[in-house]
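To whoever picks this up:

The parser on our side crashed when reading a file containing two proteins. I've narrowed it down to the boundary between the first structure block and the second sequence. Both blocks are reproduced below exactly, byte for byte. First block:
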Amino acid sequence: MANSEEKKHVAVFSFPFGSHPTPLLNLVLKLANAAPNLQFSFIGTEHSNNPLLISNPHIPNTIKFYSISDGVPEGHVPGGHPVERVNLFLQACPHNLQKGIDMAVAHTKQRVTSVIADAFVAPSLTVAQRLNVPWVAVWPPLSCSLSAHFYTDLIRHRCNSAARDTPLDFVPGLSKMRVEDLPEDVIQGVGEEETLFSKTLASLGSVLPQAEAVVVNFFEELDPPLLAKDMKSKFKYFLYVGFLTLSLPLPPLPPSDTDGTGCLSWLDKQKGGSVAYVSFGTVVTPPPHEIVAVAEALEASGFPFLWSLKEHLKGVLPSGFLERTRERGKVVAWAPQTQVLGHGSVGVFVTHCGCNSVFESMSNGVPMICRPFFGDHGLTGRMVEDVWEIGVRVEGGVFTKDGLVKCLRLILVEEEGNLMKKNAVKVKTTVVDAAGAQGKAAQDLNTLVEVVSRS
């Protein structure tokens, strides 16, 4: 009985790359709000923790941050490919993760009673097993990509020499997907070339069933029912907790004159549903010839456009492009994306299919033109086009002037585009309802609170 009175201490391991830390912290904030008696130790690297602390100044005192090594040996300078840093981080696990646990226990004077981790930090399972505490895995991308990783062995066996357009109709809920949509790590075979990161992802089919719960950054109401049913059959708890990067329903737009980028004021002057908004997120950088193709398409199409383009890439734009399009186009180094997508003037979002961007577009009812680049982008783009029918992918998978003009006209002018807009509004309604008190996400969050509270 004495043990049941013990204060619960949850260690949280973030995957310190890309946009992964943000949804994990937002999940912890939800848990801390729902169960103020829980103590959380959020463990990441200094590089991943600092931005979270800066952008979240009012974190409750039940959440403490601890920074561990990024695994890069002293004096070593990683090459340009980001996977090298990921491999070095994973190589330093689980010894490095245990150091984080030791710091948290020494500071709080409380033993860890459960572990929540980004599923990409699979070695955290070993740490939880050593501590003899429950392990909860969090999957930040779409659940369809989790299914693809779960079935990696089967997919590799069935699709070893399959054509790129071969359907994945042997995986429950993924019949609309094609081999070409799969993340690189799923389809490439086992061999000396396989990275530690790829091996980690390929192991998820055997690792994740050992979790007390698997949590996804998504709404069950948006998934193919067969996929949801299959995933639920594989795990003790498979919990949909909604979009972890957004507060729903979205707040009303702020006064346009408070937007320092000038985007909202500019959008105020455009016709409703007429603007093409273009952005490829913070990680993706399209090759120069595709940036040129986008510029040429925007100029040739005649549609008003707002383009969030990194400052150093403006030099790639065709000579005179900014001057020639000044009357109907605006190019900025950064845009308040959620607010831009919530503005009535925006009619289509040209995106790389990062899940955060897609979630923001869905929540605002804006159809999309998708150009997937890597990882789960292809699966997400297929969901947009063929499952939810709220957008199109660019022909051939790369930007060309004629291909993008065709997509812009399809959505902004043609009847097929009107159907996509109607579908996008329906999806927005589904999202708002799913995020409400009666949605499954609220129930699943309560279940997660119970899981970590009773450990």
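<<boundary where parser fails>>
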Amino acid sequence: MSKLIDPGYFSKQVFADTKRGEFNTKNRIIVENNVDVDFVFMGDSITDNCEISAYLTKSNKMILNRGIGGDRTEYVLKRFDADVVQLKPKHCILMIGVNDSWDLEYEPWSRTEGMSVEAVSERTYENIRQMVNKAKSNNINLIMCSILPTNMTFTNRNKERNIYIVDVNQRLKKLCKEENLIYVDCYSEFVAEGDNYVKDGLTFEGLHPNTQGYNIMMKILKETLSNNGIEF
């Protein structure tokens, strides 16, 4: 019996731990039965909440969802070997980074300032760049999705969050060009004209896509993959 890669639990309470047992069981089934995997979707709640099969009614592809609500790039990087590499997918569709922006927030109870946009953006980019390296070294075609714009007016760093998203997306687009990766630009269809906030009517609360939002996302993904010779 082959040894299953398991990142274990982390030293503090993090969202990535909430599905560790579930994913370990599912990963073992895939690995020990030598199942050929076509796509792994990797990300946070925007990936986790998507009913991917609803958009693939005529597909015969093996597609796995390894999104975890609330996840951040730090922990996606730590579980990348377990939830992507060992499954040996042909393609990994990655959308991650919006939750890192919570570190921008001012904490009123402790009166602690958040991190700067530059610091969080650099950290996010570096974590994703390491995921790209892992994918390339294991012959996995990583497909990079842009981070979506938001409009969470109930937070105290709403403006800074969207500046951060623009900066990270610019970095990721440049990285994809340098590494010859496919970049899926959903951001441009979600952002309000002349601004950097999400359009009205595409999310539930300024963050998570509703049905219309997911319809747009999956349409863009399918078209981008098709334009690059990949059947989804």
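After patching the parser it read the second block fine. The longest strand covers residues 39-43. The chain has a mean pLDDT of 95.
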